[in-house]
Amino acid sequence: MSFDFDALRRHPDVEGSGLEASDAADRLILDEAAALIGEAGPGEIVVIDDSYGALALAAADAGGRGIRVHQDLVTGERALASNAGRLGSDGKVRSLTLGPDLVSGARLVLMRLPRSLDRLDEVSQLIAAHAGPEVVVVAGGRIKHMSLAMNDMLGQSFGRLDVSRARQKSRVLFAREPVVRPSSDGPSWPRSARHDDLGLTVVAHGGVFAGTGVDIGTRFLLAQLGDAVPDAATAVDLACGTGVVASWLARARPALRVTATDRSASAAASARLTAEANGVSDRVHVTRADGLEALTDASERLIVLNPPFHSDAAISTGIAAHLFADAARALAPGGELWCVWNSHLGYRPLLERVVGRTRQIARNPKFTVTASRRAG
């Protein structure tokens, strides 16, 4: 394939050494699907979980038209749009939400295999239920992130599964003959679970961090939040995931209005459903956004954060640094960022430098909770 993968950029996502906009798995998926791309008619190609546009734009370069795309991260969606503009592919691809309209009538689905089996399950069920009966799914990834459980998961939604030869530490799975599972087999997506110890019901789409559970870092953070800027009229749950912190704060403080924000579409959708399940949707506003871009400078007195440290499959502390800087911008003078982090990451000096004076609230063998105050 003659497509110039080196021309792709990750921006506005985190960029840096070891963080590439495409990899060998993208190239293998496209090479294995080359004939199918050539045979597909307008509107018959769908691309799912394409990190920065490599699959969609290379397929467009190979002649695909009317390509429908879904990327979970808003930063990936924007990177695709930016790359399409620079490479002259505007109008050849369009972004949609994850739902029936994305895959309806599709004959070819190109996708990166998600690390989460739950995400793979939700996407597989969607394709099997709404794509064309002759659909072929060409799904690939780096071998180190693949497992036989992925084959089993795809096998629940497709009658035929084939495996490519490995190349450059990557492999591709081909799924054909979609099978629609009967509803009697159990709940589909999203799913929910009750946590009586927290007084919360958590609702999650596939692939959101911790799913319907509540991770131990968040639990440790919640145990400390009673004293977090108690007179604040509003609060922000930054990188909200399923919205556990937002809904917990709204329930604990009946007069509080909470903004929950995450760059993940599945996380934002889950957070909305979690707020609804806990009767606080009237006071929890959820938005899919890159950090706090929707908030004005110096506008918030309380921001709460459990920062992620993965960018796709790569580990990067740059994500936390970006979120800390965004929080510093949005905090009002005297406002505080309450943050939980893996103690070995040693974020306190960074918080001191980027946000302001930082004090330790609590620490256990694995996690540290800090409060960083914006000067002013």
From TrEMBL:
GO biological process terms, semicolon-separated: methylation; rRNA processing
A single GO molecular function term of this UniProt record: S-adenosylmethionine-dependent methyltransferase activity
Residues of the RlmG N-terminal domain: 7-176
Name assigned to this protein: Methyltransferase domain-containing protein
InterPro entries assigned to the protein according to its UniProt record, in alphabetical order: DNA_methylase_N6_adenine_CS, RlmG_N, RsmC/RlmG, SAM-dependent_MTases_sf, Small_mtfrase_dom
Database matches in PANTHER family: RIBOSOMAL RNA LARGE SUBUNIT METHYLTRANSFERASE G (PTHR47816:SF5), RIBOSOMAL RNA SMALL SUBUNIT METHYLTRANSFERASE C (PTHR47816)
Gene3D superfamilies xref list: Vaccinia Virus protein VP39 (3.40.50.150)
Start and end residues of each Methyltransferase small domain: 200-370
CDD domains on file: AdoMet_MTases
UniProt keyword annotations, A-Z: Cytoplasm, Methyltransferase, rRNA processing, Transferase
Domain of life: Bacteria
Database matches in Pfam families: MTS, RLMG_N
